[in-house]
Amino acid sequence: MKNRVCELLGIEYPIFQGGMAWVATAELAAAVSNAGGLGIIAAGGAPADVVREQIKKARTLTDKPFGVNVMLMSPFADDVMQTVIEEKPAVVITGAGNPGKYIEGIKAAGIKIIPVISSVALAKRMEKHGADAVIAEGCEAGGHIGELTTMVLVPQIVDAVEIPVIGAGGIADARGTKAVFALGAEGIQVGTRFICSEECIAHDNYKQAVIKAKDRDAVVTGRSTGAPVRALKNKLTREYERLEKEGASFDEIEALGVGGLRRAFAEGDVETGSLMAGQSAAMVTKIEPCADIIKDLFKGVEF
Questions:
Q1: Rounded-to-integer distance, Cα 298 and Cα 178, Å
Q2: Which of helix, strand or coil describes residue 246?
Q3: Residue 245: helix, strand or coil by DSSP?
Q4: For the chain, what percentages of helix, strand and coil (3-state, to nearest 5) are there?
Q5: Over 60: is that where the pLDDT of 1 sits?
Q6: Tens-place pLDDT, residues 154-213
Q7: Taking the C-alpha atoms of 173, 131, 69 and 221 in order, what is their torsion angle to the nearest 10 degrees?
Q8: What one-character-per-residue DSSP string does 133-155 give?
């Protein structure tokens, strides 16, 4: 079976692996692409030379299409985007901002551009600027989030634009896939479940924290800064909450998170590390290959 998302990117299943900073490495992206989805390397806050190395590494692991997620809040965003344009992956995914100023250059290089959006207004703007599709991400997702849920965001975006819509946020099994397709989406993006894939090189402590998570463990911090983030609750999130309640400054709150993702991903620090994960974490129960995850997400699904 094929649909517009599959045809646009030359993939077998209309599934994107989420662009999770630190977690979405060349190894994970290649494994997802080899399994028929669209693997995505996350640039996160990395400098351009690191991103280039990751792209080159992915090409040694797969000959299938893959993408790069560029976080527009990164201080290296301009250099990273230029590097991505030079390296020409199949698609650029953008998050945490408006990619308008980059779209012309991306398209001129023959690369697809698919922004992550959290509002109807931004979806319309991206379509007008030439985006090939959009990812409508609900606040159930991990990491940086918007305010609307997947349930209400996806159908509004579908009604507002003509380009394909990929639904994201809270999808962890075939029930979620079917639900998002019923809302009008033509693809899904999944992040949290892929943390617990065999090919993900995150520390096992991080993976086990996801597996052990209960329904209310994925909490949101940073609302007072205007940049809310969802992660599994631990000592770090409690400290965030304390600072926000005390009215701490933006700089104080931001300083608390420096190095948090690295501590979780590389060191396995589940207390002071930032265990970014979505509300679907409570539905993730085991570590398994990416190919098995994708097959399970599309079990009984028509697209």
A1: 8
A2: coil
A3: helix
A4: 45, 15, 40
A5: no
A6: 999 999 999 999 999 999 999 999 999 999 999 999 999 999 999 999 999 999 999 999
A7: -70
A8: -EEEE-TTSSEE--SS-HHHHHH
151 token code pair: 């349930």
Distance CA 37, CA 64 (A): 9
Read off the pLDDT of residues 72-118 as tens digits, 9 standing for 90 and up.
988 999 999 999 999 999 999 998 888 889 999 999 999 999 999 99
Percent of the chain, pLDDT > 90?
Answer: 87
Gap between the Cα atoms of 249 and 29, Å rounded: 37
C-beta separation of 167 from 187 below 8 A:
yes
Beta strands 218-221 and 229-232, pairing class = antiparallel
Q: What is the pTM (predicted TM-score) of this model?
A: 0.94
And the tokens for 212? 């052990």
Tokens of 220: 């949101």
Alpha helix (H) residue ranges in 161-196: 174-182, 192-195
DSSP labels, 57-101: HHHHH-SS-EEEEEETTSTTHHHHHHHHHHH--SEEEEESS--HH
The rounded distance, in Å, linking the Cα atoms of 42 and 47 is 12
pLDDT at residue number 142? 94
DSSP string, 91-137: EEEEESS--HHHHHHHHHTT-EEEEEESSHHHHHHHHHHT-S-EEEE
Mean pLDDT of the residues in the chain? 95
- Average of per-residue pLDDT across 35-40: 98
Instruction: Note the pLDDT of residue 173.
Output: 97
Q: Which residue in 122, 62, 120, 134 sits closest to 91, CA to CA?
A: 134
Tokens of 210: 């996801």
- pLDDT of residue 217 exceeding 90: yes
C-alpha to C-alpha distance for 170 and 139, rounded to whole angstroms: 8
**Site of tokens 């976080």:** 71
Helix orientation angle between 77-87 and 100-108, rounded to the nearest 10 degrees: 20
